[in-house]
Amino acid sequence: MPEISQQLAASSLASRRVLLGVSGSIAAYKAAPLTRLLVKAGAEVQVILTEAAMAFVTPLTLGTLSKKPVLTGFLRDAAAGEWHNHVELGLWADALLIAPASANTIGQLANGLCPNLLCAVYLSARCPVFLAPAMDLDMFAHPAVTQNLARLRSFGNRVFDSPSGELASGLSGAGRMLEPEDIVAELEQFFRSAEG
């Protein structure tokens, strides 16, 4: 037990509040190990799933791993008029991590569109934003996606590199989501630098 306490104390993610946005990509299955690793590093994780993401990973899985109910839309209880306050969520977080960030979500964020809770939280967030793109290589190389990613970077967002490798389509090339261990390492490095 003392080893675990020492590891948490050493982690720059300890007690950090991370909003994890998961969008509709086959790489959404990686949100489960990513959530587990963030929690293991001591972060408090609130997951937001887009409707498209729920085709790939369930709220039950991510809620169990994060130990918090997963948010999937604006309304908590429509009959009672209860809703998830995107402004409060954006102010609560120390980091907004969108992994995977699909081409559709990247386009929405880059152009200020707000069709779902995740985009509304992004537009309200005052914390650092990190994106881990995930899509097929032709989509990733398309000029529209390239421009949207450049635009997001110009807003001050941090976009992780997309490593080459085998893709779900069977093709091989850039477009893979950065592995969960590497994402956690990047976040830890960011907060370590911020502390120093």
From TrEMBL:
<dbReference type="InterPro" id="IPR036551">
    <property type="entry name" value="Flavin_trans-like"/>
</dbReference>
<dbReference type="Pfam" id="PF02441">
    <property type="entry name" value="Flavoprotein"/>
</dbReference>
<dbReference type="InterPro" id="IPR003382">
    <property type="entry name" value="Flavoprotein"/>
</dbReference>
<protein>
    <submittedName>
        <fullName>Phosphopantothenoylcysteine decarboxylase</fullName>
    </submittedName>
</protein>
<feature type="domain" description="Flavoprotein">
    <location>
        <begin position="17"/>
        <end position="189"/>
    </location>
</feature>
